[in-house]
Fold each of these.
Amino acid sequence: MTAHLTDPAGPAAVGSAGELCGRADALCRAAAPHLPPGAPVAAVLAAVRLRLAEPGLRIAVGGRMNAGKSTLVNALLGRRLAATGATECTTLVAWFRGGVQNRLEVRRTDGRRYHVPGRPGGGIPHDLTLLGSTREEIEEVVVETAGGRDPHRPWTLVDTPGMDTLSGLDGIALRALGAADALLYVMPHPGAGDAEALEALRRQADDRMTALNVVGVLSRIDELGDGTGDPWPRARRVAATYTARLTGLLSGVVPVVGLLAQTALGEEFTEADAALLGRLATAPRADLDQALYSPQEFLRWPDGPLDAPGRARVLDLLGCHGIGAAVDAVPTLAAPGARPLLAALRASGVDALLDEIRERFVAAADRLRAAAALGLVDEAARTALGDEALAPAARRALDDLRAGVVALRRHPLLRQTELAPALADLAAGRLRLSAPDTEALLRLATGTTTAACLGLPEPAPGTTAAPSAHAARTAADAAARWRQLEPGPSRVLQRHARTARELCEELYFRAAAAP
């Protein structure tokens, strides 16, 4: 693994990095003065410190070609900034960050960087020639938007190109994945190919992408089945099925109507658009349903209440399913207008996805960022120690650094990362566990608190935590169960059961020592 030395999230800003990131930064800070200036290991430590100083998490959005990744990115950004549709710009790696103006930084493969204006309103132009370099010459694009960082979205997003084959991504896209702390994997219509694609991503990302930091998104639930009727019952069944089938590769699958989410959270929907939908609501419902059978039918609807530009406008914003949902919502609103209608359109499923991001990623940001940093630091230090010409002071500093990394990795939340191979083996069928033990492993690997790791209820807001003695007993029982599995029939089971048992023991000792 190599360090990603660019700074896609912007200049370093000291924020609430968390205990683990703070301790990782302190290890780098202590070693840096003793290293030769300009040495590769010194550059890695400097890059890691910049990354740890960033105020938010890095989340990549990936998936197969035409999966709806860029539409989802726009929904999560609250603005149409990512290029959508089958254009050459959708094959670029694009980072999105707040800034002081709308502009693009183009980073070329030869190391040169320059700025170009963003399109009106900000974002990536659909015409690649406006970027001033060919697709082959561009490493990545950083999209800056006026207004700074949104406190309601404490993350930096990277939109990655689609995987056009199961052989995986090119080196540029893989480096972007390696620079991310977590992944949203987007699937329009789940199938066997997604399991293979996720497995390929996991292998190419050095086993870093598992249920520890991957959430699946079912992006076009309105197209499931025959595309008519209420899609949600079927979408929930499909999401549950693929959550089970992809166990170990992702923590869950969240169904979303991508286009509806993009509009519900965006800034484009106006009072004039609400008026257009109000006029559509006056049409006979049977006529509207027939027109909404397909986009082509809707655009050809000659005797409807909207003219051709009006029909094209609402179709672009909402799609056929979204138009039907909006028209259904119109008579239920307490007051007419864009704001109440947008609130109704949040039934796109995007709120559930935002909750999942906060629960799985943001709550675990300290662990995810520190684990990635320690991996980079340890590899760089190990490589540097192989240089026989290294000065004694630098060698001592690197030995101390590696010892500090080992000690910090004993923290229970960082020990969870050692279960990533277990999740990968579980997904591939190499690790076979009973259903209760599978659930226990997933809790242990992905929980963001001691209670979550042990399957204990979280304390209600404003109340005190559960007694530490109860947590200690639960951890001891869990350790005993994994100890029973250690002499299992396969080396894979033996190795992972030992890791799980050691983590439970660490949780026990911490709970037992708590006041």
Amino acid sequence: MNKKRAILLLLAIFSVFSACKKDYLSFDYNDGNITGEDVWASDLHTRGFLNNCYGGMLARYDLGDGSLLAAASDEAVNSNPNGAIVVFNNGTWGPLRTIDDQYANMYNHIRRTNLFLENAATSGIAPISDIPKLMGEAYFLRALYHFELMKRYGGIIIANKSFNPGEDLNLPKNSFEEVVNQIVADCDAAAASLPDVTADLSSENKGRATKSAALALKSRTLLYAASPLNNAANDAAKWQKAADAAKAVIDMNKLVLLTQAQLPNLWNYTALPFNAEVIMATTANNINSVELANAPISYNAGRGRTNPTQELVDAFEMRTTGKPISDPTSGYVATNPYANRDPRLALFIVTNGSTFKSVNVETFVGGKDNNVNNGNTTKTGYYMRKFLTEANFWGTGTQTLSRKPWVLFRYAEILLNYAEALNEAQGAVPEVYTYVNMVRNRVAMPALPLGLTKEQMRERIQNERRVELCFEDHRFYDVRRWNKGVQYFNVPVSGMRITRSGSTLTYLRFEVEPRVFSEKMNRFPFPQAELNRATKLVQNTDW
């Protein structure tokens, strides 16, 4: 086959895959310029089909006009009051007004992985010794896409086969437990045939599934399954299963925590090996759109979209004592609120007086980064720093870009998964301290005090997740699985109004916007269009 013919065939395959969006269960992949038999007969095309299966991995830097899911939780406010993300916060979302539902998208990609799994063993893949590994990748992806649905909707329709147009597609949803079992089974199947880490770090293999990724997904799945939202009886055995799953990743001895100085590079792969703390991340192009969307307004016309809340800032403890700022013995000084705080505050959030792109930030009223005449100005007195590469340039002139994949799983999460699950299963045993303190110590935070009760340890672990994993899509779902949405999401969020008189700064906490949350919002509503098509699906409670 000549080069021109090969290019035409690959373009044809791409057009066929794109066509599947029309119906995620009954898509016929035999239309277009190339048949299914042609695909599976070719090593190149079969591998290309699997590559296309990765397309459902979500990069979460922009859910619309630069917004992050953080702005749909108590982590942040979106500076654009008309952004789509606000429907999560004002109670106006529902079956007819969905956002980030991903229902059809995930089933599209599940069907692709099923087609690969059903055909790979008899395909033209060469050498055939590659088949188990490639099927392992597909099992991981099928598990991941079911998890994306499960964490949104709870019980969903399990799709462990491709569906033919003649089949009855009006199916009832499976129970939450059945979905968990399916995901775990696929994770186990993937882990059994995947390498520990990606041995070949060439660009075409970056972002491929590994054993550690499969086990990390299993860990997260079982943690969700053990949590109060899904474990009303507080079955300790479910917590122990979640702990065991996280420990399996730890016991591989393949992963390390980055140092404090390296930590910002997790989201900017320029100077680190691909798998250092990162377990799994999406592929990515070189971009500067994240900086443009979120940088302070005075920096090359940054749009400052993600404004951290005062609630999130307050969660960062004191560096010198390791105590919450609410503790009168912590050393917190209200007139100098950002001094001696957990170093992650400066790494993840831009505060007044900090340095960004080698220039001092001014978020006090009337400062260059708090200008009421600019519609994008901070609504809380803060800007997000995490994810931003300060070397990037996005203003007029030559653009500077960096590669910025979305990190799906990283080692710090696994350590916190283990600590949380083990504490719930066994109480605040020494191992719980060990793994929480590993995360704290890498940024020079003091170890947790000895003698904590199970309940006290729970609060410290939940706060550690809030701080360490901020803006990474965890808080939105963590609060839901803990069944604490009414406590944290049904109250107004706050900011810090800073005024300057000469060299004196005055700090005043203020309410930024109200928030609405009810118990039904622990689950997403199924889109009405899907219910119309499959009447047996049944809407989630109270939607």
